[in-house]
Design goal:
Helix content: 25-40%
Strand content: 15-25%
Order of helices and strands: HHHEHHEHEEEEEE
Distance between the termini: 55 Å
Number of helices: 6
Largest sheet: 2 strands, antiparallel
Structural class: alpha+beta
Low-confidence stretches: none
Shape: globular
Number of strands: 8
Strand order of the largest sheet: 1-2
Radius of gyration: 19 Å
Mean pLDDT: 87
């Protein structure tokens, strides 16, 4: 990675943030506004809103997300209590600049293919961002469980998994 001081002093330019830096900054902003825990469906909505913005963009450059865009995306994704003030404060805390812009394609996982990883002590599951809508974390009999909505039978190493009824 190029030295930021070299870019500023010798080339009279500004160092551009990496995709990872944008992704981490976006996560920090969203967590600041929403808290540490989000429903998977809300996260899927956030990714879908940004993906749509990229797809509908008619400019040759990838769209940038500013404070207002992030506010709209979070509110449209079903996150409650989103206000301009909360988002501006989150931008200030994370980026030290309320006018900071994030490259839209940097903040979401690849929309084609299985690019989202869910990690637990028991398993690692990969799925596409739009399939996050099929995931729920629930409490059942005092235990935290991952519930995955399926359209067909699950198959493990060639064996079809038997469907069980959950007791209330």
């Amino acid at each position: 990675m190029p030295d930021g001081r070299f870019i500023e002093r010798v080339l009279n330019g500004e160092p551009k943030p990496t995709a990872r830096e944008d992704r981490e900054l976006f996560a920090e902003i969203v967590q600041d506004v929403a808290g540490d825990a989000l429903p998977a469906a809300t996260l899927a909505g956030v990714y879908e809103e940004i993906h749509q913005m990229i797809e509908e963009n008619e400019e040759p450059d990838v769209p940038m997300l500013d404070c207002r865009d992030v506010e709209r995306i979070l509110a449209d994704s079903g996150l409650e209590g989103v206000t301009r003030e909360k988002v501006e404060q989150a931008f200030l805390r994370a980026a030290d600049d309320v006018h900071y812009e994030l490259k839209a394609s940097n903040v979401i996982p690849k929309f084609t293919g299985k690019s989202v990883k869910i990690q637990t002590r028991v398993a690692t599951i990969t799925l596409s961002p739009q399939d996050l809508q099929c995931i729920r974390q629930v409490m059942h009999k005092g235990k935290r469980c991952l519930l995955i909505e399926l359209d067909e039978d699950a198959v493990i190493e060639g064996f079809t998994v038997k469907t069980e009824q959950l007791e209330p």
